[in-house]
Structure formats: C-alpha cells, structure tokens
Amino acid sequence: MRVSTRQYQQIAIDGILDRQRKLSKTQQQMVTGKRVLSPADDPVAATRIHSFKESIDILEQYQANASQVKNRLGLEESTLKGVVDTIQRVRELAVAGANGSLSDAGRQSIAKEVYTRLDALLGLANTMDANGEYLFGGNRTGTMPFSRSGTAFLYHGDDGQRRLQIGPDFSVANSDSGSDVFMRIRNGNRVFATGFDPANSGTATIDQGRVDDITAYTGHEYTITFPAAGQVLVTDDTLGTPVAGFPQPFVDGQEIPFDGIAVTISGAPATGSDSFTVKPSSSQDIFTTVQRLADALNQATTSPADEARTRMEISASIAELDNALDHFLNISASIGSRLNSVEGQEYMNEDTLVNLKQVLSNLEDLDYAEAVGRLNLQMTGMEAAQQVYLKAQGLSLFDFMR
Questions:
Q1: Are 145 and 125 in contact (CB under 8 A)?
Q2: Contact between 262 and 178 (Cβ < 8 Å)
Q3: Do 264 and 212 contact (CB within 8 A), yes or no?
Q4: DSSP assignment letter at 316
Q5: What is the dihedral of CA 152, 157, 160, 166, to 10 degrees?
Q6: pLDDT value of position 135
C-alpha cells in the first residue's frame, strides 16, 4: 500500500494533536488538583463523586441551619435572662412595698420604678434578631408582637414555632412564641386562685391557699361569705349549693378546708357583705401581673379596708411573680436543652463531613507525583513527535535529483 505525502503529513499532525490533548489534560489536572475532570475520565468514579458532593452540600446546609438556630436561641436565652433579672427586681420591690410601716408616698415611690420595669419588660418581649425579625412573634416575625392598650396587653403574633432541619432526621425549633413565653403563666398557686370583692369593707385578707388532696379537688368555683357574726359559709358556685359542712364557725387566721383544698382568712370581715372567691387557676400574662402590682402600690389608702386590699394585691402579686420566675426558668432550661442537642448534632455532622470529604478526595484528587512523571513523559514525547515531523517534512525525491 502506498502512502501519499499528504496522508503521511495528516497522520503525523493527528499524532501531534493527540499528544497535545493529553498534555493539555495533564496540565489542567495539575492546575485544578483533580484527577477526574469529566465523566469520561472515570465514569464509575464520576458517579460516586457526584453523590458524595450532594451529601456534602446537604450536610453543610445542616451546619448552616445549626449555626442559625444557635444564634437565635442564644439571643432568646440572653433576652430571657434580662426578663428574669427584671422580674426578680420587681419582686424585691413588691416585698419592700409590703412593709406595713410604709406610707402611701413610700409605696408610690416604689410604684414608679415598677412602672419603669414594666416598660423594660415590654421592650424585651419585642426584641428583634440580627435579621430585623421579632424574636417572640411566632411565625409572624415581621409584626411587633406586644402592645399596650390602656391597662390591657395585646399579643399580635401566633403560636407557631419555626423549625430548621439540622440533621437527616432531626429538626429543632429556633424560637418560642410570645404567647407561650409571656402570656400563659398560671396565676394563684397554679391550681386555684383566690380573690376578693373590691367592695369589701372589712379588714379581712385571704392567702393563696394550698392543696391538701388533689384527688378531692373539684375544680369548681367557690364564694366565701360571712352570713352571721362568727360564721363562714363556702358556696359551690358551679353547683349553686353550699359545700357540705358549712356554715362553720369563723376563727381569725385559722385554715378553712373544703373539697381537698384549704384557705386562710385573717382579720375581721364585714358580716353579711364581705366575700372572697376561689377559682381554678388560669393563664395571666406577666405584664398584667406587674401592672396590677404597680397600681396597688400607687393606690392611696384612706381606710383599713383599703389597706387590706392593698396587702392582698401585693401578696398575690408576689405569688404570681414567683410563678413567673419558675415559668421563665423552665423555658430557659428548654432552650439550654435545645442548644445542647444542636451542638451534639453539629459534632455528628462535622464527623460525617470529614469522612465524606476524605473519601471524595481519594476519588477525585490528583496524585501529583504520578502526574509530574506523566507530564515529563508527555512533554518528551511531544518534542520527539515534533522533531520527527520536521525531519519528515524535509524529505523529498527532488533533493536527490541534482
């Protein structure tokens, strides 16, 4: 078979171009540090590389979510610390205001600081995060959650909790709704709450009561009255009948037990007119608790009955502030538990990421020692091919026909 000069040149050029492509590929591998530049280089490895990269991207997103959760929960934790500090100060002021030797002016001076602390509590409840979102608005993070209308406090958020995925099967709430944090605090002794008729004219006061036998407690509403001198009557308002065994003799400062609970009334009630109530405990927001305390401290007293009402309001406020402190400490404990679980998941994610990246490196990273040797061989081969082609270009029969 005869090979024409043109064919020979084409074969030589194709050989040079092929060597050029291989040399260029090796150079590109060395620049990128990657062995597999396209699926054609190693189809099996390319498939596995794609799968590992997807897994790594997902884990890195989990880590980003975990970081966001930690930042938001950390802000909530520090905000609640400020809330607890404020409530503790308000409680100190309430105890000081309960001092019977204080004048109206002295209590009113204390009330001024309590009102200031109330404003501080509202400010903390309306805290915003670094993204300009309200921390305690539930899912309505763009709306200021709390506002005041006269002596009423309104919540404009919802009960939602935003959750972020931080692991394959693990999501965590990165906040708590304002309704759960600030609005749903049990009043009274957290089982029932005592109260009084504002029209009472006697000097009697009622304590927060206690539970003797929770199984005997009915959860009904009761009214305590004094139908005759030296007598006390407990009426079950839910049933509309007197509690069995009543009326009974009334003894100042002696417990009055009924239906698994007991309350103590001290002082001198006005016969036939004074009354007290016992109702199941309900939710009360912290702002109303502090507002009522401030109003009680700010109230002028012109009679022994006024003094009795003020003492009862302050006493009830102290009990409800204690309930609030327990409530906020429980929420803080829940936040701490979530932060611990997030950190634990972060460690697990990081370990998995390290392993995946190591396997990925083994699959796609270039062996530089082998690549340098191959590059030198390819460059030598390239130079040889070019020299041969140049020599072949100079061969012609006309050079010998002289």
A1: yes
A2: no
A3: no
A4: H
A5: -120
A6: 95
Mean pLDDT by 10 residues, the chain (402 residues): 58 60 59 61 70 86 93 95 97 94 93 97 95 93 93 92 90 92 94 95 95 96 96 97 96 96 96 97 96 95 92 95 96 94 92 84 62 60 60 54 52
| pLDDT attached to residue 74 | 94
What pLDDT is recorded for position 282?
A: 94
For the chain, which domains are there?
38-187+282-365 (1.20.1330.10), 190-281 (no CATH)
Per DSSP, which regions of 80-230 are E strands? 146-149, 152-155, 163-167, 170-173, 185-186, 192-196, 205-206, 210-211, 222-225
- With b for 16 or more beta-carbon neighbours within 10 A and e for fewer, the 173-197 pattern comes to bbbbbbbbbbbbbbbbbbbbbbbbe
* Residues 268, 229 contacting (CB under 8 angstroms): no
pLDDT recorded at residue 52 = 73
Which residues have a Cβ under 8 Å from the Cβ of 19 and sit 6 or more positions away? 378, 381, 382, 385
Residue whose C-alpha is closest to residue 204's, from 244, 232, 168, 242? 232
pTM of the entire predicted model: 0.80
Alpha-carbon torsion, ordered 183, 189, 190, 191, to 10 deg: -140
User: What is the enclosing helix (H) or strand (E) of 373?
Assistant: helix 368-393
Residue with tokens 């460690």: 347
CA distance 133 to 285: 22
